[in-house]
Amino acid sequence: MKDLRKTNRESAKKMHRPRWQAFFIGLFLFYMLLPILSTYVFSVATRWDRTILPEGYTLQFYARAAGASYFTSTLRNSLILSLATVLVSLIIIVPTVYWVHMRLTSAQPLIELLMILPFGIPTVVLALALVQVYNFAPLARSPFLLIGAVVVYSMPFMYRPVSNALQAIDSHTLTEAGQSLGANIVQILAEVVIPNILPGILSGSLLVFSTVFAEYTLTSLIVGARFKTFPLLLLEYTRINGNVAAAFSVISFTIAWLVSMMILWVGTTGKATSPEALRAR
Amino acid sequence: MTYLELKNVSKAFAGVDVVHDFSLDIEKGTLVSFLGPSGCGKTTTLRMIAGFEQLDDGSIQLDGNDITGVPPNRRDIGMVFQAYALFPNKTVRDNISFGLRMKKTPKNEIRKKVDTVLEMVRLQETADRYPHQLSGGQQQRIALARALAVQPRVLLLDEPLSALDAGVRVALRGEIRRIQSELAITTVYVTHDQEEALSISDKVVVMNKGIIQQVGTPEEIYRAPQTRFVATFIGTANQFLGTASGRDSVVCKNIKLLAEGVENFRDGEEVVALVRPENIHVQSELPQQRNDWNAIPGVVETITFHGAVTRLGVNTGGQRIVADVTVANTKPVALNQKIWLLFPMSACQVMAAKE
Amino acid sequence: MTPKKRKTGGFSNWIGFAPFLLFCLAFEIVPILLLIRGSFFEKTSGKFTLSHYLGLQHPLYVNSFLNSINLSGLTALIGVVLGTFIGYAIYCWPSARVRDALITLSDVTTNFAGVPLAFAFVIILGLNGVVTQFLAHYLDYKLYPGFSIYSFSGLVLAYVYFQLPLMVLLILPAFAGIKKEWQESAQSLSASTFQFWWQIGIPILMPSLIAGFTLLFANAFGAYATAYALVQSNMSLVTLQIGYMISGEVYQDPGTGMAMAVLSLIIMGFSIGVYQVTANRARRWSKS
After folding, report:
1. Quick check: B147 contacting A, CB < 8 Å?
2. Separation between Cα atoms, residue A82 and residue A214, nearest integer Å
3. What Å distances lie between residue C283 and B109, C219, C274, C275, C277, CA to CA?
4. CA C22 to mean position of chain CA atoms
């Protein structure tokens, strides 16, 4: 009751705050929404280079986008790359995080450091280092090398939600409770630990997926045209046909939106205050 | 002499009355506690005195001047918060001198005053530390020193001990009382802890649902509660629901009790008779009946050792009564023993059943 | 504190850590170390040399670094200042639903970068962009040739797009950490609103502001795709130069490229290091 009144009081006080907030929020909305909305409109505009509003509207660019020669193959490549990265991350990161929590707490600072490291390395530098070291078949400039690179670069996105989830459920006590009730380690993992950290695993996977799906730098520098992904196709089309490129953009926004909504739906990821908000531009 | 005066103060949040028609005179140099359960309006009242909340109705006067519309930074009032609220970016010394600097006090004077209040709270050695380097109890003493350094006209304390451990709490409340009486500073102390309020205050204001229930010295509040709420909120009281009958009786479900204060009620009006556990005598045989005493038979159901007293839970034909016995003046009792509970009419107070 | 001093460490327990560690070594640490080593040695003779670093004195590389640092510093500064005000406006906004919506928007837009972002800015601010035309038609103001989306000023606008929401996300917890009681104690000690912000509020926010600046700086410094899609060869940036070297689009001495990479590692590492220290400090303050 007391808390309720407190919030009422606060909101009552905020009600008559000055207009400068509205100004900043308006500016923010304008800046954030104008580029996105313009892209949407551009993708359905017949011609929009002589007038303020488009001269007409059409869906033909979506038809042309879907009919583009590389459309399905790049979409497929992007999906393969993203899913493979999620899979590899799940295999190498989730068990490691659990292991460190349970049996090797002295490795906690080391794993934290390894998770910050990718933020201190520009993606182009990572690409350069990998291309120079792995200059032999079958790794040289191959999708396999690319998967290794994007796993490294996206691993903090998997690590943080999983680690937070493990911390939140107090896996030690749960494991001990399970043991005292006679369960073995496999049963504890399958019935207690994994179901409880599943939201963390899911949001980590989705974050990795959307990050890798939009990845341009490592893909173009490590494999280039040999394994063309969706962002590469998009850049190509910005030089061929702007409207079709806009249609491709809209498709990639839509995928990003969908994944974001799924992450929100899965639960909080706790990434707002950490460098996880950093991605390659 | 009235120093701080609240006149018909009312406050509502989103249509809900939080403080209703609150009037109170506080004498200069005294410590007055606002005591009540959470949500009773005590903190809101305190915040209105500080100026953090606007009054919907009524006025507040300090030393003969109306301060109702004066902003908090011009009220000359010191405030101590439950969560210490020390500025984390400033050392202890800078925290304490903050208010003095706001008032443009000369530097050497600031130094002297800071040293004085630090000595008062016995934390001279912490002057150059940061808040996060201090324990909770130390932080709260520094917060007290910071509020006192500007020599405010009134000191307000909002549940200052609630965030501390039990031991620190008792020590610090003694310290607050000592400093308060040394400086003879008018103080309002908000708490939900009855023991704290009773031990520290000159006067206690018991509040419930935004309304003053009773104002009095700690003894008056404990010995002569005026409402059922006060009687049950402070200490423990056995309650007998019944109807008023004649000049001195209350008719309950199975028994008829002799009680004081029945004359204030109409015959048949719903009342409650209250008896404190320590006023009940326990005997194994019914002694010779005295005519102004109540005697109720019962069976001992629980025996709980509390140190100085032992509390008995007694079943008296449906109603459970608790009685405190001291080892010195009672023969040992056993579980399931049949006993008699005896208490004088004067220990049995009658109040309106409605809170 | 429950007693959780169980046996940790020990050789057998480290085996469980090995696969992950090996992966990091193989795809991150060893290649980077070899890159650093390579920048100090001659490729053919294998002798120690500083010539790769001395080669960076060429105006092209000096310009690349200056451009990168200016761009990162300027967009980080704009991001910090505007983002702080916007963050505070969001923090104070009365409706929780609006606040949540704006936070979600920031979350999504800070990740909207690279090629789609660059292209969206061409649509609005290109030669025939929406805003370009609006200014020409209604305000009779010719944006071109004074401004170009394909130049430094264009990059600034595009980078601010992802810097701003990132700063908003970073600063919101800092505002939440400023306790109402601090404001009230300052008031009861006769401080004005301005005195509170100047003496208490801003100093408490300072670690978060510095942390925000360093993170935003690193964020812009390492950026590649947005710049590549927008400016191409109009302007040189460190990441673009390194990219050209890898793809072989422009001939460059590989040694110089490595030296450039090492230098940018140092700049990024320093920024992220300062970020870590200041962010920890901010966290500690908001706890006390």
Report:
1. no
2. 9
3. 35, 21, 14, 12, 10
4. 29
A238: exposed, middle or buried (C-beta count within 10 Å: 0-12, 13-18, 19+)? buried
The length of chain A, given as a count of residues: 281
Which strands, in side-by-side order, build the sheet including B211-216?
B77-80, B154-158, B186-191, B31-35, B203-208, B211-216
The predicted structure's pLDDT at residue A268? 54
Cβ within 8 Å of A, B 241-280: none
Q: CATH number, domain at B269?
A: 2.40.50.100
* Contact yes or no for B13 and A2 at CB 8 A: no
The sheet carrying B338-344 orders its strands as B281-283, B338-344, B293-305, B310-316, B319-325
Is B217 in the same domain as B243? no
Contact criterion met (CB < 8 Å) for A5 and B14: yes
Q: Model confidence at B111, in pLDDT bands (50, 70, 90)?
A: very high
At C225, list the tokens.
């795709």
CA dist B191 and B217 (Å) reads 16
Asked if the C-beta of A194 comes within 8 angstroms of chain C's C-beta atoms, the answer is no
pLDDT at B339 over 60: yes
Q: For the purposes of burial, counting CB atoms within 10 Å of the CB of B69, is it exposed (0-12), middle (13-18) or buried (19 or more)?
A: exposed
Neighbors of chain C with 3 or more C-beta pairs under 8 Å: A, B
End position of a domain, from candidates B215, B232, B249: B232
A-chain residues near B53 (CB < 8 A) = 9
Distance between first and last Cα of chain B: 32
CB contact under 8 A, A5 and B38: no
One-letter amino acid identity for B262? V
Structure tokens at B146: 């910071």
Q: CA-CA distances (angstroms) from residue B138 to B86, B145, B160, B197, C112?
A: 11, 10, 12, 21, 49
CB within 8 A of A95, min separation 6: which ones?
C16
B203 and B59 within one domain: yes
Q: Do both B53 and B123 map to the same domain?
A: yes
- pTM of the predicted structure, to 2 decimals: 0.81
Q: Which residues of C141-166 are buried (b: 16+ CB within 10 A; e: fewer)?
A: eebeeeebbbeeebbbbbbbbbbbbb
CATH number at residue B111: 3.40.50.300
Residues of A with Cβ-Cβ distance to C90 under 8 angstroms = 25
The tally of domains found in chain B comes to 2
Question: Could you report the predicted ipTM of this complex, rounded to two decimals?
Answer: 0.89
Chunked mean pLDDT (size 10), chain A, 281 residues: 40 55 94 93 84 82 86 93 95 91 88 90 94 87 93 93 87 81 82 86 92 93 90 91 91 87 69 43 45
Q: How many Å lie between the alpha carbon of B43 and the closest alpha carbon of chain C?
A: 13
B243 shares a domain with B276: yes
- The parent domain of residue B254 ranges over 236-352
Looking at the complex, does the CB of residue B38 fall below 8 Å from at least one CB of chain A?
yes
Q: Which chains touch B (3 or more CB pairs under 8 A)?
A: A, C
The answer to whether C17 contacts chain A (CB < 8 Å) is yes
Which residues on chain C are in Cβ contact (under 8 Å) with A220?
247
Instruction: Select from A190, A181, A183 the least CA-distant residue to A98.
Output: A190
Neighbours of C55 (CB within 10 A): 16
Distance CA A42, CA A49 (A): 10
Q: Are residues B205 and B272 in the same domain?
A: no
Nearest to A148 by CA among A67, A88, A58: A88
Whether A5 contacts chain B with CB within 8 A: yes
Interchain proximity C185–B71, CB inside 8 Å: no
- The angle at the Cα of B99, spanning B96 to B102, to the nearest 5 degrees, equals 140
CA–CA separation, B84 and B80 (whole Å): 7
Alpha helix segments (H runs only) across chain A? 2-15, 20-43, 60-67, 71-102, 108-120, 123-133, 143-169, 171-180, 185-188, 194-213, 217-222, 230-238, 242-266
